[in-house]
Amino acid sequence: MMGERTTIVVSSPRRAKLVLHTNGLAKLFCYNNLGTTFAKYGEYLKQLRQLYMLELLSPKRVKSFWGIFEDELEKLVGSIRSEAGKEIVIID
Question: What is the pLDDT of residues 7-42, one digit of tens each?
């Protein structure tokens, strides 16, 4: 296993705004807005993107993790299948 992440699936822009902004979850999940998702455009974001491209997303690096990716994807699909028919909680 490569790691574990809490995941929230939001089905509409209105709900996304409620979850991310009103409840402050963006800061919680994105390292106080220091990750690439919510970082303000500027030198810091440019450096992060360059680091990602050189160290994490190079063709050689991506190829080296492909087997792990396939295994984790299989686990995810199996997990979703095992939840079929169960209730989904919607925040409104």
Answer: 777 778 888 887 777 667 667 766 676 777 777 788
Give the end-to-end CA distance of the chain in Å, rounded to a whole number: 33
Q: To the nearest 10°, the Cα dihedral for 52, 55, 56, 58? A: 100
DSSP-assigned states of every residue in 24-63: -HHHHHTTTTTSTTTPPSSHHHHHHHHHIIIIISSHHHHH
Q: Residue 66 has which token pair?
A: 């492909």
pTM above 0.85, yes or no: no
- CA–CA gap between residue 64 and residue 62 (Å, rounded): 5
What are the distances in angstroms from CA 68 to CA 57, 59, 71?
15, 15, 5
Position 2: which residue type? M
